[in-house]
Structure formats: C-alpha cells, structure tokens
Amino acid sequence: MISLKKYSDLVRSHFNNPQNVGHFAESDPEVSTGRAGCAESGDCVRIQVKINAGNIEAICFKAQGSCATIAATSWLATEAKNKSLAEVLKLTPEMVLTTLELPAVKTHSVLLALDALKKACNTKLP
Amino acid sequence: MRLPIYLDYMATTPVDPRVTKKMLGFLERDGNFGNPASTSHSYGWQASEAVEMARKQVATVIGAQADEIIWTSGATESNNLAIFGAARFYARKGKHIITAQTEHKAVLDPCRALQKEGYEITYLPPNSKGIIDPETLAAAVRNDTLLVSLMQVNNEIGVIQDIAKYAAITRPKGILLHCDAAQSIGKVTVDVEKMGVDLLSLSAHKAYGPKGIGALYVRRQPRVHLEPLIYGGGHERGMRAGTLPTHLIVGMAEAFLLAQAEFNEDATRIKKLRDSLWQGIDQLESVHWQGAEQQGVANNLNVGFDYVEGEALLMALQDIAVSNGSACTSASIEPSHVLLAMGVPALRAHGSLRFSLGRFSTQEEIAYAIEVIQQGVTRLRNISPVWEERKHD
User: What are phi and psi of B240, to 5 degrees?
Assistant: First the structure.
C-alpha cells in the first residue's frame, strides 16, 4: 500500500466524488457491459456503455477496490463519455498513470479499469 | 474535538503530560543532564541515580529485580537482542527456535535472518481466534530447541496469550522463553515470575511514554547470557553499549508507574468505549470482529468489512486515524500475516481495520467515529458491483 498522502488531488477528487457511478439494465439491447477483475482478488470493475453512431452516448460504472481502482475507473468513465469508440480504444495505461500521477505499483488498478472499458466497447464494435 | 480522531493507540500513544513534565527535568543546563556513565563528577552521579531509580521502578512494575533490566532503544531492539543474543550465545546447545506465525515483524525478521545462519525456525500456527495452543508448542519442541519466542498481547488483534502455560513446557526442558510484551504494559498484568519467562521485551511509547526507549528483561536466576549486538563501552552489564538517554529512561519509568496505578480505571473506561464502537459498527451488514473477544485487551478492535477494500476504506475514513493491521506492514501490499494465519480469507483480510483506543479517547470521539465509519462503508458499498450483485442474488 502506498502512503495515502501521496495520492494526487485528481485521484482524491475522483475517489471522493466518483463520476458516472450507476447501473444500466443489462437486458437493455442498447447497453454493453464490460467486467474485469473478480471479487476474490479484491478489485472488481464493471463499466457499462450505451453507444450511438459509434460514439459513447452514456456510460456508468461500479468498482470495488483500492483508491486507485476507483479513481482510475471514474476518470476513464469521464474521459470516454461522448467520445468515439476509436478514440476510447486509443487510451493507454501510461496515459492514465501519468494523468492521475499514480505510481507504477498501481498499474494493475489502471489495467483493470481499462480492461473493463475496452471490453464494454469491443462488444459494440462494428 | 481534534480531527482526525486518533484511534491508533496500538501503533503509538501520545506522551502523558505527567511524563513530559518528568522528562523536562533531565534535558537542559539547569536540570539533570549529565552522562550517567560519567563517574568523576556530580552531574554524572545524579544522572546515574535517576537511571538506577527508573530501572528499579520498571523492574517493580514487571515483578523483576533492577539488575535484570537492560535499557534499549525500544521493543524492536529488545526483540533483536533477545533472539540474536540467545541464539548466538547458546548455539552449541542447539539451533532450533520456535515462534508463532502471528508474531510482530520485530520477532519474525530476526528469526528469518537466523535461518540464513543455519538455524531452523518453527512458526506455530494459531487457532481461528489467534491463540497459540500450548499443545501445539509442546509438539514442536525438540532436543535441540534453544529458544521459544511468543508474544503476550498481539499488536493487530489484541489477543492475550497465557505465557505461563508455555513456560510450563519450556522450563522443565531448559529451553529459554522470550516474550514480546511491547503491547502489554497498562493493558494486562506483567509478572515475569508468574509468567516464567527468561527474556521479556518492553516498549515505552505504547504506554504513554516517549519513543526511542525500551528495555529487555534478562533473568539472573538462573542466569541467562546474551551475545551483544552493540559493542562500545560495556554499558548495561556488557549486553548493550551506548550512552543512556536519561530523559527517555525516566520518562519510561514514569509512564509505567502511571500505567500500573491507573490500570483498572483505564481498562474499565476504555472497554466501555470500545464496546460502544463495536455496537455502532455492528449495525452494518457483513462486518466481523476478528480475534478473541473474551481473551483480548480492552482497547483493541480488529474488524473485517466485507465488500470494501482496506486502502479505499482508510481513504474514506480520513476523519479517523486507524490502520490496516500493523503499522510496520503498511508499506507492503500484502494483507495482514496475522489475519491470514488465523484463516481469515485474503479478501476479508484486505478489508480489515484495526481500531485501538486509549487513555485520551472520549465518548464524543467514538460517537463521531461510528458516524464516519457507517457513512464511509456505505458509500464504498454503494459503488461496489459485487455488493450490488450480492443484494440482487
């Protein structure tokens, strides 16, 4: 565990006030769901998107895990909203780590959030 | 009310103002600042008198003789001196040491280091409450066992071990028994004769004394020998060289005397507060008191929170100062080795916090802490997909 005081203001902001938290009914044909991690490992991310004309029109997530996992997922959900699928698929772990000023030891949190997002998007690729 | 509310008294305690007052007389020019090892003038004699008085006082608190107390920099050094010192001095007798999986790193790490020197270490498993069954110890003892090291009060779960039961196994076989009693003073009775220990580690800062000072009890009858770790002047019966910090030593003695005098009052009041904290936390679903409720110290509460991760929980509870397990392991990402040894599932161990109360905890603080915990846990569970899906099951 890294010292909590080392987390950046952006991580703290997303952790304390996560953006786009929610749940879309999976029965809705417009909804695509991506999951990563599992309850057994302690970190688990679920991202859901609604795509219209190749753009992410709506997005929501739920996450259980460390501060970094919650903050990275919230940041990615904000970043992906109203973006095209092509743009979203260009997001890299390095980009997230750098923007959130996360240490390398938190790479797994970022990979988990990105994995869930890309799974949600991939299922809607033409 | 000062925020964050301090609920980490097992990590360290603030110095009691009465202790500070005592220490201040041993620092400045007008005070008793001399080097206790200076034998040629009154500055040294007076400092030496203060050190010897403190030695007697600390010895009295634990039922020992003054000349059985060796000053150290703290319980970590005491544990190192006891384990390395005994292992190296008695190496001819055998090279087998027994300890427990739930010990503090200040015992486990010296044992691991000795493994590299060719010693064999047996790490006893606890039961699900964190207790080491004496029969488990008896089964592990061998002809070449030279030392058993078992703690009295566990620093993470607060469980109290009945050390006398272990002594009943080690003493007839001539095996040395060391006890890490860093957490004991002011929380349980420490009596080296009744416990039957040969070596016992003490710390001042866990009992409202200053950091940087501790002691090792080394039995004289029958005499226990140790190979020193620090050379350079032959202080402390040749077992620990170095100029004695008079102000810290008198601070430790004062803290121990206060802890002894106020033991019952502190324990009764703190237990009431601790129980009210648990009642508040227990209103949440899926929370678990970890440790032996009936065989634990009054001030500690280790709780496993399902469906939240420990680091996120600490961040969500920034208005209270608590830790996830031992402070010394917070640099690593692994869940508590103590909880894992007790058979707590890794996921729950990750979501566990240690709340420890103390002399200065108040009802107002506990009421506020309950509010913060309930809100924080609920907030994290509300954004957990696992919690949501469980609720829908």
Answer: -160, 100
